[in-house]
User: Fold this.
Amino acid sequence: MTKKDKLLNRVFKKPKDLTWNELVVFLSIYGYELQDSGKTSGSVRIFANAQGHTLVIHKPHPENTVLPYVINKVMNKLNLK
Assistant:
């Protein structure tokens, strides 16, 4: 099993300890890239794909663990429920 496969399996299980970096890699698998964070305020981060679809997500702080509602939001937006 590749690292990509392991990450996909992990995210689909909606773990409570998913890190921000894992989420960024997961989104890149689906064609989303983190946009210039200088255009947002605070912890808001914008991801966009080639078709112009966007995801607005709050980067966790001070910890690096993504909250469960963020994983659900991403899964819903990507129609991966």
